[in-house]
Amino acid sequence: MPKQPGRSRHLPLAAVTAAAVLVAGGCAKTEDDASSQSTPAAQAQQQVAQSPAGTAGKTCTLQQFGGAKFDLKGSVVGFSQSEKEANPFRIAETKSIKDEAARLGISKLRVTNAQSQFSKQIADVQQLIAQGARLLVIAPLNSDGWEPVLRQAAAKKIPIITVDRKINARPCGDYLTFIGSDFYQQGQRAADQMINVLGGKGKVAILLGAPGNNVTTDRTNGFKDRIKEKAPGIQISFEQTAEFTREKGQQVTEQLVQSNPDINGVYAENDEMALGAVTALKGAGKKPGDIKIVSIDGTRGAVRSIVDGWLQAVIESNPRFGPLAFSTAQKFLAGEPIPEKVVIADREYTTANAKGSLGLAY
Description:
With 362 residues, this protein is of the alpha/beta class. The strands form three sheets. It has a six-stranded parallel sheet with strand order 3-2-4-5-6-13, with helices on both faces. Helix 5 runs parallel beside helix 6. It is elongated, with a radius of gyration of 20 Å.
């Protein structure tokens, strides 16, 4: 069951960690933290599972999957990144995978980048399979269209862990498990923040993420459903895709302020689009807070924009998947049951905590 907004995100980290079963043993270092991964700062940045194993649907064991046990350290492990690393989320995600592989002594990590081209990502993963990958960690660009890869991986009994986005296929068959946030709940939590900053009234625009994946769909539906449920005085008067990019976030917001000059709030489905919106609002002569902005991700630039008054809230989507992805693989190879989805607990940043929490952002 998804946690109710406002519950566990305010628990002390130690309490959340104690409640989690699939907790990573370490944490990738950030750009500003070159010290040991066991430091309190590193521990505060790591992902933790939101709920214990067994409550997130069916589970899968190595025996059920039909694969053979192998040693990660001596095996080829493939990581397929979906998007060019021009945005902080993807930079932090790839770095986390590389850092944790190095920490564990996995010397044969192969990393590819699809540069936001789905056909290239399919070819990338097929190449990783041809290179002898025993484990695949995939950050999918799209949720559909994975059949060619899944057939090849299934024939060789290669477990696939998807991170950040789901693929539409069978867990414990076509792939092993999905690790990521509850995106629908992220949309709900963003709506709660928007309702709060607008006092339950006003006109809101949505900067939609890229089409064709579950993140965009769930973040949109969660936001709209919560607004409908709790704030009938808020009207969603504009929505357009900005494809999760800063440049398009700016372009769409420039159109928005021209066509909807009475807009009161902007819900951006990631921080890059939100920061593009800030640039557009500055260009239109707006002042911080004239139009309330709520977004999702938790990048340092977005959290700093809360401190500066341009954003009002950011719901975190933690990209540091390395420790949790590899600890999940280790548990699976040890014969332990793995849930079909591992939902992570995300914090949120507001005007009340942004300044003191900048070190947790990425």
